[in-house]
## 1
Amino acid sequence: MSMNAPRGTQDILPGTSEKWQYVEEQLADLCRRYHYKEIRTPIFEHTELFQRGVGDSTDIVQKEMYTFEDRGGRSITLRPEGTASVVRSYVQNKVYGLPNQPTKYFYMGPMFRYERPQQGRMRQFVQFGIEALGSDDPAIDAEVLSLALNSYRELGLQSLKLVVNSLGDQESREAHRAALVRHFDPHREELCADCQVRLDQNPLRVLDCKKDREHPAMETAPSILEYLNDYSKDYFEQVQQYLDVMDIDYVVDPNLVRGLDYYNHTAFEIMSEAEGFGAITTLSGGGRYTGLVQEVGGPETSGIGFAMSIERLLMALEAENVELPTDEGLDVFFVSLGDEANRTAVKVTDELRRAGIQVDKDYLGKKMKAQFKAADRLGSKFVLVLGDQELENGVINVKNMASGEQQEVALDRIIEHMKNELTGGK
Ligand code: HAM
């Protein structure tokens, strides 16, 4: 039995976890400004939710779910994405009946997909996502796109490409679907086994096939944009007008399909165009969904959202050489020697921490010189020294590591003194 972490998972160790915290805080702050509030849903749900929500014909449901039977004989699945759970919660808690619609949520947490791991593709990854439920206003589509883009821009990314498409309403989709079947049916035998099934179940999925990508029929496949009815066409135009007023650059790609079944009207992805980003260039994706709330047992309500993985975001930051302003230093290291000094050091360390100051000390019984070395390695701003001499005089020696300045401070004034040093008295 291997004692390594399972394939496609990773440990996030100090040095990197600070970056995660920083990014998570920035994203939460962005959501606050757009007035999206945090929702936390369970990590596992009834399998049926994803089968019906994400769609039976998707790769996610057919090949990638972590599904197991629990001890009560129920089929349970580790969530492969967040939208279905958010919609389930919205319906279950009858949030649609509350005043102040639309309902605007954000979420952050681990998702699970049994995919073939490679750089940027994990089996456990963390998604940050938002969902706005209960409005059909194209302006909210543009708001979601703006938030998605700004989440990257504000962290310092520049090489971004926003690709948008419309998948139309049900009527448009049905017309397009019939056209796709007419187009691909003569080539049925030349398509992969999966696509032959897709052609019957959900022909749109054929356009998304990785195996048949090079088939000549792909290039000439009918575009959804030719099948949009007036309502869908007008909707898409309005979304684009709102993007224009916000000066958001985008490209329309009629072949953008997305890997989940619930979309109609607006669909989009954001790609990284940074050199050396890797084979997978999609940073995030999302779109509008109309049938999902009803599918889960709620009233006819539509929503729009998007999700990104933090893993791919951090990869993009690295590819663009963006340094995150994370502080990995230490405020105070307490150096002490001798039993009584050690006892006092424990007491003062505790008091400093309770006063809001970050402090660490030696726990390996090191000599004074080695303790100083440790303080230096940890990047401590101040070193407090308490030896026999200082004890006798009722003082602590305070050394400012940047300036090299030293001063003796009375033991009973040390908390106040350090507070002033570190916060400038604020
Ligand atoms: P998705 O396109 O399946 O959409 O995933 C969204 C994002 O999650 C991807 O663009 C990527 O950043 C990240 N992601 C997906 N799979 C992996 C993986 N195996 N490893 C690392 N990152 C991954 C959804 O999940 C929809 N729920 C988005 C949405 C929200 N649509 C409407 N609302």
Note: The mean pLDDT is 94.
## 2
Amino acid sequence: MNTLITVAPTGAESSKADVPQLPTTLDELVETAVRCEAAGASMIHLHIRDADHAPTLDAGLLRASVDAVREVTDLVVQLSTGGSVHDPLDQRLTVLDAEPDSCSLTCGTTNFGDDVFLNPWPFMVELYRQSIEREVVPEFELFDLGHVAALRRLIDTHGLPYGGKVHVDFVTGVPGSMPGTPQALLAGVAMLPPEVTSWSATGIGRAHLPIVAAALSAGGHLRVGMEDNLMYAKGRPVGHNSELVARAAEIATVMQRPPMTTTEAREALSIKDRRTR
Ligand code: KMH
Ligand code: ZN
């Protein structure tokens, strides 16, 4: 099975002042999307920034970003519904108005550094219900083993997602969530409900490379990008998201699991084709 590589280029946590190479403008996002697709990514996980480079859920900017990336790439466009830890739940639901191909859906609340990333059960259910209604494929974000149990409960009580495929992403190494170790990752994989058709993993910070290696070894897919990791190597910051994608693609290829094409990814995730070009 080839490897689905998702790039998460920006996130909501790092500031442009601290990390000038973080793509925060629309032009930078589009340039990043093009280069990451060329490097082997087939999905992009987007957080949007405003004119001051601050995280925003502005409806117009979200729509413009989805449209712009869709216009120049074949990447599966996934919008974050997690936003930043400061975004209210009702506003996080409005992300679907931008008609992304996919949306993140975090399966529970977690400590998140000094903050709390809030995902109460009723919010999860409402987001899930709306994703099905709007034909948007969710990616279930699992930060902890309890989130795997919550995913099972969601599927048991509300059925399968739009398209019938169940794709999850383990986010490991967040301070307050599951550690970025192969042991924790494999414990989560062992608990996955049988309905899950594909899983990927990301390691925050220094967990990045160990989790890439562990996920590939265990048959998983990969998420990389500056949302999760700002260092390419010890003492060497990431200069561009495509560097992380290219390295992940190289490791995956060495492991005899080269990157999926965007066509393969769209099929693997049962993405509704919204492309206009
Ligand atoms: N920024 C974090 C609070 C997601 O995109 O869905 C949440 C996050 C997860 O990044
Ligand atoms: Zn995110």
Note: The mean pLDDT is 98.
